[in-house]
Design a protein that fits this description.
With 157 residues, the chain is an all-alpha fold. The chain contains 6 helices and no strands.
Amino acid sequence: MPINVERYVHGPSIRADLMQEGFAVLFRAVDGFDWRRGLLFRTYAVHWLNQAFRSYIYNNGSTVRVPVYLQKAMKQINQARYRLGDMDANPMRIAEETEIPEHIVSVAIAAGAAQHLDRRRLQEGRRRQPTRRPPRRRGRRRSVLARTRGRLAERGA
């Protein structure tokens, strides 16, 4: 693929899904490409791939499905909170800063809280998984019987 999938990967299982999505979109890009427009195919394909990857992440990025307009609003709200220097700013102040209606700010903040709960639940689930066993030592290990024989041979000699 002409772009790096790693830019969009935030988990191990999403890489294969993104690659599958990318291959399907490349066929769509081939069908719609017109060389007479003066674009390189790579430029045209990268546009389609970026659009498909963003769409896939918006739709399948978390267990709780948040509409795209709320995700974009959450991004603007987080940027406004950062600019204001107050992560607990009230929705009216954020609405003035971002020029987004106050009711949408309230809904986006609630949706963001649901996503944070979802992430926390996933992190707790990861902690509960059993730890991996340490790797086996390479090479031959002497059995207890062989070590005992060796010690007896040293004493008898």
